[in-house]
Design goal:
The chain is mostly helical. The chain has one domain: Up-down Bundle (Fumarate Reductase Cytochrome B subunit), CATH 1.20.950. The chain is 67% helix and 5% strand. The protein contains 8 helices and 2 strands. The chain has a two-stranded antiparallel sheet with strand order 1-2. The chain starts with a strand and ends with a helix. It is a multi-pass membrane protein. One of its GO terms (biological process) is respiratory electron transport chain. This is Cytochrome b/b6 domain-containing protein. Pfam families: Ni_hydr_CYTB. InterPro entries: Cyt_b561_bac/Ni-Hgenase, Di-haem_cyt_TM, Hydrogenase_cytochrome.
Length: 218
């Protein structure tokens, strides 16, 4: 009998959907240009906040959010592909899903990092917040990397969406609804520890201080 089990906490779900909606906006605002470029840089700060939050939450957040709970080495991935892992043992991301999580976080972090130092060579009014800390050549290089790397980020995003769709079609598992409601129906019992308010407050504080430091240096 399957039991309704809370798997994803609210901070993890909110992070997921805010990031998922922010990335397409960043693409659109960059293409549209004009006044939207101001919002492009502002939402970039939001994404920076989200990334720092997720990294910290992945260290001391709830069990299903902690990297140590779901990120595995190649041996663990091979074992999963060979024998699988019961969902009540690992109710959150499986080792293959963990690869995509890490890849997306790394790609978005790189994209944000280059954007902070990128130069606006069109209107010269929306340079990255930290562009003044680097040379003109470096700022121009960061802009080129920022523009071109987004293509790879888009590929990662497409693979992620395709994998979610494949799970729905071939394994009959809906991964979207649990990321909205927080609940899954799992065969057997599982024990998940959810982080408390102190951990959440510390995580939010570190993320906020990081953004504040960028604004202070800008």
């Amino acid at each position: 009998m399957k039991n309704k089990t809370k798997v994803w906490d609210f901070p993890t779900r909110l992070f997921h959907w805010l990031l998922a909606s922010s990335v397409p906006f960043m693409w659109y605002s960059a293409k549209a240009g004009g006044s939207l470029l101001q919002w492009h840089t502002r939402i970039g700060l939001l994404i920076l906040f989200l990334l720092i939050f997720r990294i910290c939450w992945g260290i001391w957040g709830s069990d299903t959010a902690r990297f140590s709970r779901f990120v595995r080495g190649w041996a663990g991935i091979r074992e999963y592909m060979k024998n699988g892992i019961p969902e009540h043992v690992q109710p959150g991301h499986n080792p293959l899903g963990a690869l995509m999580v890490v890849a997306l976080l790394a790609a978005v972090s790189f994209q944000v990092g280059t954007g902070l130092f990128a130069a606006d060579e069109n209107t010269f009014s929306t340079n990255g917040y930290l562009n003044h800390l680097v040379s003109e050549h470096t700022g121009s290089l960061m802009r080129k990397i920022h523009l071109n790397f987004f293509n790879l980020l888009a590929v990662f995003s497409a693979i992620h969406i395709a994998a979610v769709a494949a799970y729905r079609v071939f394994k009959k598992k809906n991964l979207v609804v649990p990321m909205i409601t927080g609940f899954k129906y799992i065969e057997g019992k599982t024990a998940i520890h959810f982080a408390g308010k102190a951990a959440l407050a510390a995580t939010l504080l570190i993320a906020a201080l990081t953004v504040a430091a960028v604004l202070f240096l800008s």
